[in-house]
# Entry
Amino acid sequence: MVVATPRRLTLDDILVVDADVHVHETPDELAPYMDPEWRPAMENLRQVARRYLDMPGFGPNNAPRLPGTSLPSPRGGRVEIVWTAEQMRRELDEFSIDVGVIFPDHFLKLAALPNAAYATAITRAYHRWLKEKWLHAGNDLYATIMAIPQDPEESVREIERWADDERFVGIYLPTHQVYPIWGHRKYDPIYEVAQRHDLPVLLHAVSGIASGFPYNVEQFYTSITAHTVSHVFAMMSNLMSIMETGVPVRYPNLRIGFIEAGLTWVPFLRMRLDKEYNENRHQWPHFDDRPSRWIRKFYFGTQPVEEPENRQDLVDIIRIYDGEDTTVFATDWPHHDFDHPRAVFDLPVSNQVKRKLLGTNAMKLMPRIKVPAKYR
Amino acid sequence: MAEYVVARADELKPGDRKLVAVGRIQVVLFRVGDAYHALPNICPHQFGPICEGKITGAIMANADTGWEPGWFHDGEVLVCPWHGLEFRITTGQCLAYPNVRLRQYPVIVDGDDVKIAL
Ligand code: FES
# Structure
């Protein structure tokens, strides 16, 4: 008698949503989409030497270029840029990724631009460019609306402009050099509009470093040091700031996600914070239970996913922060530290949990994403 | 359940407290306004001597206060002297954790005697 053995689950069998892919916005690309008064400024930027995620007036990296951070990597070779929607689709297909959620490249550093009107102008151009060049019918690419921390009122107007467009599935909060950090009450209108439109806010870290941000990492002279902690420090301070002013209590239906800092910092922060709360409840009088009860509702992007010798350790970490339903896969494609979906798919968890981590959790975080034709 | 006389009826003024030992159990008798409350002298956190804590009110914030800090339960909050957990004397409820509550012993005023039941 022949007994059919069930085929092993593969990445192609499950819906894979990538919560973080990057498109390459350049002054050339954006100039035609700028409002007339700012178009000359953008055209001027065409003269500036191109440097990856490091362009004055566009994606400023205010840290000095040190030998340790600017030495060419022996990796060499691969150009870590996606230029077109077709290229993105092709490359995600090669990774068995069904849906991609777009974040920018240079504008990971949007918050470092000192001129609010200019930051607003490039944000407006960026959204028009996304709509026209990236969000084509049926390509299963979605975008995030970029918030403008320099001018929350203007940011709300810009969010309203795109909030009804079904291809914008969240609001991206830049964290690099953001001042003040995201808990400040001046940002309340952004949280209010996000909650009203049922759009999650997604804080995205980047390793750009500058004096004092995030916290002395500019003193390191190799990128391994800075890159190990800078995303994490930025996320921790912003998470704490959001908790300090009670954002999750005051906006109980708002979904909040933290993208590109990995996962292992989450249990640490939760446990430290709960311990502090035990003594200092009166300082955070908006909470009536241990703070981790609220952090438990936050979402966390996997990338750069930790790869401990014993894979089970990461599964345990996810359990410790109650992350089975709130952890969302992300590649960070095409950046140098991207993760292939296998890095998460191969974790020692049940098939049901694999489906959650790789796809269905992201659908809960960003419910506007439509299930791709293949799975309907 | 046995009743134990722990104070005279004229002994505690509003805001006062008295530590009493009933067998091996330490109990704190509080008078808040005209009412008596009896709580164990042991903090559920790390077993601090809660009886020695300050009696005060508490800062809280909620939708009714517009999420601004407000002063609540004046004279009804006991603060553990070790790490500062706050408890409402009138209910035993811990303000930091909804699922933590001090045990409350029944208090009976019987003529000149204040008794607790254990
Ligand atoms: S023992 Fe009471 S708060 Fe720690």
User: Anything to note?
Assistant: Chain A is about 35% helix and 10% strand. The beta strands of chain A are 17-22, 99-103, 141-146, 168-174, 201-204, 256-259, 299-301, 327-328.
